[in-house]
Amino acid sequence: MPQPRALRADARQNREKLLKTADAAFRRHGVQASLAEIARTCGIAIGTLYKHFPTREALLQALIHDQVIGLRERAERLAGSDAPREALIEWLQEFGRCSSTYQGLAESILATAEAEDSDLYASVRSMRAAADLLLVEAQKAGAIRTDVSRAEVFAMVCGAGAASHYTTADLDRLLRLAVEGLQPR
To answer: Considering the domain 1-53 in this protein, what is its CATH number?
Structure first.
């Protein structure tokens, strides 16, 4: 299989400029920020933006890529912990911070959780697998209710991530309160 061609220097610069500008726009206006405005701010045509990132989800994927890798690696390091409940909580807090990076990102993550054709799907699948690993360990240890599914925990964390944009409540506290509801009865 042929290797993808490396980007020319100017194309690489445009891509990096787009990512930096999109990050700033998404932090200010959420994930629905105008892509045309992002391109305009970069001084490039909208077609150039779409050449690099064919969809809004592809742009989001590029922006959260490093966080997703970090979350997966963190889950692998936390797996096998002597304190599986605390390991799960720690990871869920990190995931919650990731999902709240931009207003609307948590909703995008939830919306693409089952959409295999989404540009975000691979990242979401990776995060769900990491959550599942730690959730199962905590459940086997009797630290988390066994009737709770990964999808429910994922939705709970994304909900807290989304809520953090509309309230002054601390995200880590919201997540800790939510996870307390997962304790065995």
So the answer is: 1.10.10.60
